[in-house]
Amino acid sequence: MKKILVLNGSPRPKGNTKAMITAFAKGAESQGHQVDIVDVCKLTIHGCIACEHCHTKGNGVCVQKDDMQKISTLFGDADMLVVAAPIYFSGIPGQLKCVVDRFYAAFNPQAPNSSRKAKKFAAILSSGLPNVYDGAKAVLNSLAACLGLEVVSVLTANGEENGSEAKMAELQNFGKSL
Ligand SMILES: Cc1cc2nc3c(=O)[nH]c(=O)nc-3n(C[C@H](O)[C@H](O)[C@H](O)COP(=O)(O)O)c2cc1C
Predict the structure, then answer these.
(1) Cβ distance 74 to 118 under 8 Å?
(2) Count of domains for the chain
(3) How far is the CA of 162 from the CAs of 59, 102, 159, in angstroms?
(4) CA torsion angle for 96, 139, 150, 133 (degrees, to 10)?
(5) How many C-beta neighbours within 10 Å does residue 24 have?
(6) If you measure from the C-alpha of residue 101 to the centroid of ligand 1, how many angstroms do you get, rounded to a whole number?
(7) Residue 72: domain span
């Protein structure tokens, strides 16, 4: 049984991103895996203030006390990280970018979760138009690289693919393959 942490960067509780996550989770859970879905936009997570406390005397602990601690704790116990997001202006939503930037603390060798188990990473991206994923991929590939995670898949849906039976099956099959 693997523990999979999914960060949902969409603010829409029944949106296209959530539909993709639900299909993915159904597949993964059918194989006995535990899927924890965190709706990032329901949390209070401030942007990184670049104070470097986490990389100096903080020993991997961020000086800001907010809901990022919930994500850090779940990440420390997860085998895989999945980041899901709608595309906003060719990138990821601001709420999710704050989370990505706050992972800066986690790539300090002294970070509390530096003994983390996670090895794998996947991205789930939804958009209106096709071929708009380069910005999001650049950010998320950078996050995966900094955390030492292998990117195993990037699943996308644009336009009418969103919510389609074929797309939901693709997401479910990916979850099942883990
Ligand atoms: C603020 C905002 C910016 C967006 N920017 C883009 C964009 O640059 N390219 C694109 O293809 N779709 C863009 N979209 C459309 C969303 O990516 C698309 O509708 C997506 O399926 C929404 O996912 P959700 O239902 O999970 O929120 C934007 C939507 C919003 C609200």
Answers:
(1) no
(2) 1
(3) 42, 30, 6
(4) 100
(5) 29
(6) 21
(7) 3-173
Ligand 1 atom with the smallest distance to the CA of 15 is 25
> Could you tell me the CATH number of the domain that includes residue 49?
3.40.50.360
* Residue entry with tokens 């030492």: 148
Residue at 62 is within a domain? yes
Residue 89, ligand 1, Cβ within 6 A? yes
136 lines ligand 1 (CB under 6 A): no
For residue 16 and ligand 1, the question of a CB distance below 6 A is answered with yes
pTM over 0.85: yes
Inform me whether the pLDDT recorded for 112 exceeds 80.
no
Residue 12 lies in a domain: yes
Cα of 86 from ligand 1 centre, angstroms: 5
For ligand 1, atom 19, name the residue with the nearest CA.
128
- Please tell me the distance from the alpha carbon of residue 177 to that of residue 69, in angstroms, as a whole number: 30
Atom 2, ligand 1: which residue's CA is nearest? 88
Residue 100 covered by a domain: yes
Q: How far is the CA of 166 from the centre of ligand 1 (A)?
A: 20
Is the distance from CB of 12 to CB of 157 less than 8 angstroms? no
> For 17-64, how does the pLDDT look when each residue is reduced to its tens digit (9 = 90+)?
999 999 999 999 999 999 999 999 999 999 999 999 999 999 999 999
The answer to whether residues 103 and 54 touch, using CB atoms and an 8 Å cutoff, is: no
Residue 178 domain flag: no
